[in-house]
Amino acid sequence: MVASLNREQQAAVEHGDGPLLVLAGAGTGKTRVLVHRIARLLESGVAPWEILAVTFTNKAAREMRERLVALCGPVAERMWIGTFHATCARLLRRWGEAIGLPRDFLIFDDDDQQKALTALIKEAGFEDQISARTIAARLDYAGNRGLDPLTAFGGPGGDYATQFLEVIVPRYRERLAREKAVDFAGLILKVLELCRHPEVGPRLAGLYRHVLVDEFQDTNLVQYELVRHLSSITRNLTVVGDDDQSIYAWRGAEPRNLLDFDRDFPDVVEIKLEENYRSTSVILDAANAVIGKNLDRRGKALWTERGGGDPIEYLACGDDRGEAETVARTLRGLVDDGACSPGDVCILYRTNAQSRPLEEQLRRFRFEPKVVGATAFFDRKEVKDAIAYLRLLANPDADSAFERVVNVPPRGIGAATVDKLREVARARDVGLLAAARATVRGHGPAFGGASLGAAARKKLGAFVDLMDGLAGVRDGGATLAELLIQVVERSGYREFLEHDDGDGADRMRNLAELVNVASDYQAETADDEPGEGGDAADGADGADAPAARGLAGFLERVALVGAADGADGRGETVTLMTIHMAKGLEFEVVFLCGMEDGLFPSLRPREETDEQAALEEERRLAYVAITRAKRVLYLASARLRRVWGELKAQMPSRFLDDIPPGCFALPRRPAATPAIPRPPAPRRAARPARDEFDQRTWDDDVPVIRHDDDEASGFAPGVTVRHQAFGRGRVVAAHGTGSQQRVVVEFPGIDPTVPMTKTIDARWLARE
DNA sequence: GGTGGTAGACTTTTT
DNA sequence: GTCTACCACC
Q1: What pLDDT digit, counting tens, does each position of A673-723 carry?
Q2: Known catalytic residue: A30?
Q3: Helical residues (DSSP H) of A96-183, grouped into ranges
Q4: Which H or E element spans position A765?
Q5: pLDDT for A382-401, tens place per residue?
Q6: Could you write out the three-class secondary structure of A286-347?
Q7: How far apart (Å, rounded) are the C-alpha atoms in residues A260 and A47?
Q8: A267 an active-site residue?
Q9: What does the pLDDT average to over A156-162?
Q10: SS3 of A468-516
Q11: Are A457 and A440 in contact (CB under 8 A)?
Q12: Among chain A residues 526 through 585, which have CB within 7 angstroms of nucleic chain B?
């Protein structure tokens, strides 16, 4: 912390006005430069609310704020640091009314979106032809690129899915509007709309004197446009990034924003940071060798003044469980020898599914695994239910929340009743809760011809009373935590869970945790309040009832941030996360698991993505993973891995071959190689003999790998196949082998002239 | 309207 | 292997 900045870092910090680009490798002190630069700006008289700092994750935002406060004191607390999404939410709360967005809008997360789309698809009678998932993927794709989902896929009329999008998308937008909700993509698009607004646009452009963006290689076109607008008056735009760490191309990130920055800002000052302060040279050599194989990159070589370091250890294990056990045992050894403490360690993997065996084995070796999952906690059903109650309290027109909770816990209000309510709601053009109220308060069953039996009305009446009672709690000066307790209590949820003999107790604990999260949130924002008041983006809107305000903020936090990672005080906590989550972090000791071809690199064939580009992105991911380690790096792989309950023979990752042999410790098996035999014969026989892939064996010191997709197992293009649900179709393409085989099949769609194309697991197909 | 059983999907990666 | 959405049954 006290260490001085090097020449390049200093130059970046001291840079005055005008555009600045810092192209910085891993571990070169990127964030440090940003923090010092902001501190410098504050020192030179720029007010905190005149600075906007955008980070990629909430965690990064939190960390940056902490470092800034440590460096220049509480003044930094008055500055806005946030992700693109959080920043946009903030701008919309302040200015959104200009484009007709209510101030208390809610944020639809992916799950909400999925549910809404499912309902709309069903309503339109398309459920056999298109999935909510497909439509959501397309909305996401288009939203990340600033495209119209109706024209983004194929020319006039579009492709197969477009015909459904044309019906569903407008209805989806209506639904968002009715529920006063904005989805993730919408957050940014709506702010862009604001930027084009004749009055608000110019004000936004002048709102900040300095705009700084971290991890700029991960911004997409839409985000870039926003940044450009926000900095268009002063042009004081600082961007920091590393093209080698671009790992979000799949969601529209454009590393070109970084590399071609001078196209939009010809007068940009560019500074390169290449001296790495984080890792040993062994680790750096490995990272450089891996990334060096990428062709599409701006050459940049990391170096360090320090030499040597512990060699990288390769743990070749029997199966996924054995891998987990070896990792846990090795770590236990390190900790017991005093080589490191659990808090210094991170266990990384490519896919979330890999965490489970690791968690189990870590527990077995007396560690407390902590999985840093994006949303794990807030994805729990009971948590989502409780949140849905809050959403309905925040906005009585939140029909999706109403549908979620009206019969949770079961109170005898079934689908039939809700259907009738929907009719009433449509006839009177009100929300479901209002419709329920009108129905039970005896404004008669006359609306829309819907009639409800006395029993149904009684039950519905109880629900309306419940919500009214809770609204009373909300307005009666209760804290968020108290409100939540009342929700859980009065809704009967607690009682419901208590009588559950399964995991009811666990679920109750989750709800208790949610109450804690709420109370933390309120404590936290109470502190922030004075600081935020002076903020440029925050108007004088203190008139709202405090409870209601807290509610909207809390719901926003839940949608955007998830849980702030709680204090992991307990002794032997070890952190686990995906590589994606680890970007920007560093650890003394890193275990990188699942170093197997097909898993990492993923090599998942996807339509319309260039295979080479995909592999390069995987390689960048490997680069990110390796450079997380400061001192000690373990790479682990399994010969057999359970995928969907089936054992699969795995080959070591090709990335292992890219690492110079000199970086490794002498070939050594882990002390306790689990007694798992070599891949069973049948499985090997199942592989086509001609596949050069298999030349590699586990005993090769310098293995050679080749990979090839093969279409040899009977699903060649043109073959006619049958699927239980979709009937007869024609194979267009096939990817993968064995249980991994995915086949692209064309089925006749509703419109015979427009075929329906589906990618299906080969296991569900029969040849005809 | 609630329930228990089962077929199908699910495993890239996230705000 | 695990979770879910849906269906047949009560």
Answers
A1: 444 433 333 333 333 322 223 323 333 333 322 222 233 346 666 677 765
A2: yes
A3: 110-123, 132-145, 162-178
A4: strand A765-767
A5: 888 888 899 899 888 888 88
A6: HHHHHHCCCCCCCCCCCECCCCCCCCEEEEEEEEHHHHHHHHHHHHHHHHHCCCCCHHHEEE
A7: 31
A8: no
A9: 75
A10: HHHHHHHHCCCCHHHHHHHHHHHCCHHHHHHCCCCCHHHHHHHHHHHHH
A11: yes
A12: 560, 562, 577-578, 580-581
Report the candidate in A333, A386, A432 with the shortest Cα–Cα distance to residue A671. Answer: A333
Q: Is A527 among the residues known to form the active site?
A: no
For residues A118 and A124, give the distance between their C-alpha atoms in angstroms, rounded to a whole number: 10
- In 3-state terms, what secondary structure has residue A241? strand
Tokens of A299: 């050459």
- Give the residue from A700, A657, A667 showing the smallest Cα distance to A286: A657
pLDDT at res. A708: 27
Find and list the nucleotides of strand C having atoms within 7 Å of a protein beta carbon.
1-2, 4, 6
Q: Which of residues 214-273 of A touch strand B (CB under 7 A)?
A: 247, 250-251
Q: Which residues of A108-134 are buried (b: 16+ CB within 10 A; e: fewer)?
A: bbeebbbbbbbbbbeeeebeebbbbeb
Q: Any atom of strand B under 7 A from CB of A38?
A: no
Nearest nucleotide over every DNA/RNA strand to the A185 CA, judged by C1': B15
CA A29 to chain centre: 25
Instruction: Name residues 445-474 of chain A with a Cβ under 7 Å from nucleic strand B.
Output: 456
- Give ∠ CA A395-A397-A400 in degrees, rounded to 5: 100
Considering the entire predicted model, what is its pTM? 0.80
